[in-house]
Amino acid sequence: MACEISQKVLSIINEHGPTDSIQLSALLKEDHQKIVGVVKSLQSLGNVIDVSQETVKEWKLTEEGKIVSEKGSHEARVYYAIPNEKGISQAEIMKEVPFAKVGFSKAMSSGWICIDKSSGSPVVKKKVPSIVDTVKENLCLILMNETNKVSDALKQDYKKRKLLEESIVKCYLLKKGPEFSLSVVKSETDLNTDMIASGSWAGKSFKEYNFDAFGVPPAGGHLHPLLKVRSQFRQIFLEMGFTEMPTDKYVENSFWNFDALFQPQQHPARDAHDTFFLSDPRISTKFEVDYLNRVQNVHSKGGFGSQGYGYEWKIDEAKKNLLRTHTTAVSARMLYQLAQKGFKPTKYFSIDRVFRNETLDATHLAEFHQVEGVVADFNLTLGHLIGFMQEFFRKLGIEQLKFKPTYNPYTEPSMEVYCFHTGLKKWIEVGNSGVFRPEMLLPMGLPENVTVIAWGLSLERPTMIKYGIDNIRDLVGPRVNLQMVQDNPLCRLDKTKTSAGDLMKSVLQQWDEIFEEIENLKCEVKNLKVAMGECDCSLEPDIDSLLGNGSLNICIFADPVQPPYSVNVLVKLLGQQIPISTGVHVHSSMENIPDDLKNFFTFDEVQDKNKSTGISIRLVWKPVGLDPIMVITPSSSVPVIGEVNIARLLCSFLKGDIGLCFRNPCPLSTIQVDHWLDLIHKDVIHGAKSNLASFEVLLSNRLKETQCMMGNGITIVDLCLWSALKNMQLEKKFMYQYPKWYEKMLQYF
Ligand code: PHE
Q1: What's the CA gap between 502 and 607, in Å, rounded?
Q2: What's the gap in Å between 309 CA and the centre of ligand 1?
Q3: Which atom of ligand 1 is nearest to the CA of 325?
Q4: Which of 20, 76, 613, 669 is the most exposed place for a label (fewest CB within 10 A)?
C-alpha cells in the first residue's frame, strides 16, 4: 500500500514538478501524516528526491466554528427563533438560543431584528422577511478546504469572533533528485552468504543502518497483579517486624485446619459442601498424641476454664485430609511450635493460597489468597489488635476503619473490619480478626498470660480494586488475558497522607452533596404537604409576625468609601414580597456624593397607598468607616454593624422559596454561610493584603468546583463577596477568572 503511494508520489512530481506534502495529501486523498511517512521512506532511498521542510498556515474551525457550520451563525439562530408576527421577549431568546448574547447584538447590528416597544413591554421582532447566513456558508467552505473562496478580511473577522483559528502546519517540498526514477527499487537490508558467493552484492543497493531505531523489547516474564500486590503486603509486614510463616502445605489435615482451632466436628464449614476433602491420601496419621488428647478433651469435656462443646470427639474426623480452607491452619501449627520451643513474643504473617468449595461468581473462586497477621505476646488486648490493624491498613493508604462484632469458632472477641473506600464512597468489608480463644492456645502449651491477636484478609479484593478489575475470572483462571499481566503497572500502594488541600476539597464536595440532598428532601416535604392539602409549606419564619400591624423603619448609615452593594440586591428581592419604600439621604458632614450613590437603590417602588404595613428603608451616607450601621425602629435591639450582618438580617426577612438559595433552613449550610461571611468581613473588608491573598486561594478553590460560593445557586455569601470586591475594584479580575459566577451575579447587580 505504502509502496503504491510512493509510486504515485513519484509520478506526480514527474508530471507537476515540485509539489508539497499538503498538496500531495489533497491530490491522493490520503492523510497528511501518511504522506509524510512516504516522503521519509523515499528519502531513505538516497538521491531519488530532494526534500526541504516548509511551514504553511492553515485555517481551521474552532469548536464554536464547527457548531456554527452545522447549526447556523449565532445571529441567524436568534433570527430564526423569533416567531414571525408576534415576536418574542428578549429574556426568552436569551434562555432558548445558545450564544444568544452575541447572536442578539450581531442580528441587531445587521439590521435583521428590532425591539418593538409599542405595546408597552419591549418585544423582539424580525425586521426583514428573510436573511442569508453568510457566516455559516463561509465556514462550510473553509471546512471543505475551499479556503480561497473566503476573503482574508472575513477570515480575520471570524478569527476575532473565535470561530476560526490559524494553525501552522509543517510540510515537505518534494523535487526530483539527481537519481530520480519512477520506480521504487527496494534496497537490500542484509548482506547474506548467497550474495557474496554469487557476487550479486556488487550490483545491489543497500539500506543504511539506522542506529537510532528502537530494539525489539526482549520477551520476559511478568509478575501477575496478585504477586505484585503480595510483594507490597509482604513489605508492609516486614517493615512492621513480622516474620513470614512457611505456607507450602496446601494439603492439610482436619486436625490443624479445624480441631486445633477449637472448631467443633459438626461445624457446617467441615462439610464436603464447603471443604475439598482428599481421596488419596485420604487421612494423615502422624500426630503428637498428648496434644491430640488435650484437644480431644477441650472439645468434648472442656478444661482451662471452658465447658467445651460436650460432644464425642472422633480421631477419624480429625485425620481427614483436605485442601486448607484458611491460612489460620498454618498459624495454628506455628503457635504450637512456638509453645514447644519455649514461648517468646512473636509476630508472624503469611500470604498464600486457600481453597473453598464455593459457588463461583464474579467475585468468588474456589481458590484464593489470604493475608494473615498474628501477634503473640503477654497480656495483649483488643486495643492492641485495633492498633495493629490501624497501622497495617494505614501503610496500605487506608485511614478510616470501622469494626463490627462477629463470630469465629477460634476467636473471642471477633471483629469484621470495614474501610471507607474514597473512590466508591462507601464502607466495604476488608477483613476479619479476633483474639484467639484460650481453648485453642492453652492445649498447645502456651503460657496462660499470653494472648494471641490475629487478622486476615483476602489478597484478591484489594488487587481487584487497585487494578480496576471487576470480575475475578479476569484476574485468575483460563480467561486471564496475558497482555493484561504484561501491561499492568507496578503496584504502588498510596501511602502518602492526603494533603490539606485535597482534604479541604473532599470536605467541601461532601458539603455540597449534603446540601443537594437537603434541597431534595425539602422538595419532597413540600410535595408531601401539598399532597396532604397543607398548602402553607413555608419552612421559613414569617416577617409578617415581625411587622405586626404597623410598619418597620430601617435606617442604614453607610460610608461612600464602602457602599454596601449587597443591601441594594436584598432590598430589591424583599420588594417583591412586601411593600417597601426606599430613600437615600446625605449627611450634612458629607460633600460631593457621586450621583450613582445618590440613586443607590435601583428598586422601583410600586407604592400601594392603601397598604400601610411595610418596611421603610433609608440609607444615609455618612463617614462611618468600613462598617455600615443599621438601626431598626420600633425595636429595642442594638444596632446591626457591618455589611455581612445587615445582609444576614435582611435575608432573614425573605419569605419562602424565591427561586434562590438565599436562605437555607439547613443548620449545616447556615454554619457554612456564616463561616464565609465571617471570612469576608475579616479578611476582605478588614483584612490586610496578605490575608486577601490566602482568601483568594480559598475562593478560587471554591469557584473552580462550583458556579457559586455555596454550590450552584447565589446566596448572601456571593452578594457580600461581590460588594467587597467591587469596593476594592477587583470584581473585573474575578469576571475573567470565574465567568460563570460573574454571569450569575450580573442578574442581580
Ligand atoms: N481465618 C479467618 C478467615 O478465614 C480470618 C481470621 C484470621 C480471623 C485470624 C481471625 C483471626 O476468614
Answers
A1: 52
A2: 21
A3: 4
A4: 613
Q: What is the DSSP letter of 707?
A: S
What is d(CA 718, CA 672) in angstroms, rounded to the nearest whole number? 13
Report the separation in Å between the CA atom of 16 and the middle of ligand 1, taken as the mean of its atom positions. 81
Average pLDDT, the chain: 86
Q: Summarize pLDDT for 424-478 with one digit per residue, the tens.
A: 778 888 899 999 999 999 999 999 999 999 999 999 988 887 787 888 899 998 9
Which amino acid residue places its CA nearest to atom 8 of ligand 1?
A: 433
Which ligand 1 atom minimizes the distance to the CA of 436?
11
Q: What is the pTM of this model?
A: 0.46
Up-side HSE of residue 285: CA atoms within 13 Å toward CB?
2
> For the CA atoms of 724, 730, 732, 736, what is the dihedral angle to 10 degrees?
-110
Please identify which residue in the block is written with the cell numbers 475579616.
682
Tell me which residue has cell 483488643: 382
Which of 390, 389, 430, 374 has its CA nearest to residue 244?
A: 374
374 CA closest ligand 1 atom index: 9
Alpha helices, H only, 179-327:
193-198, 225-239, 254-257, 289-300, 315-319
Pairwise pLDDT comparison (276 vs 617), residue with the higher score? 276
Fill in the DSSP letter of residue 86.
T
456 Cα to the center of ligand 1, angstroms:
5
Residues with CB under 6 A from ligand 1: 326, 328, 372, 408, 411, 432-434, 454-456
Phi then psi for 33, rounded to 5 degrees? -60, -35
* Other C-beta atoms lying within 10 Å of the C-beta of residue 386: 17
- In DSSP notation, 469-486 reads ---GGGTSSTT--HHHHH
Rounded Cα gap, residues 109 and 341, in angstroms: 98
> Using the 8-state DSSP alphabet, how is residue 425 labeled?
T
Side chain identity at 594, as an amino acid letter? P
Cell of 318: 480429625
- Rounded Cα distance between 352 and 248, Å, is 8
Q: Which residues of 604-620 are buried (b: 16+ CB within 10 A; e: fewer)?
A: eeeeeeeeeebbebbbb
CA–chain centroid gap for 710, Å, is 19
Q: Which of 348, 354, 372 to mutate to test the pocket of ligand 1 (most atoms within 8 A of CB)?
A: 372
Distances (CA, A) of 389 to 236, 273, 368, 640, 675: 12, 32, 21, 54, 37
Residues sharing a CB contact under 8 Å with residue 251, sequence separation 6 or more, in sequence order: 278, 321, 322, 323, 324
Order across the sheet with 19-20: list the strands: 19-20, 164-176, 49-61
d(CA 319, CA 254): 6
Question: Hey, how many other C-beta atoms are within 10 angstroms of the C-beta on 740?
Answer: 12
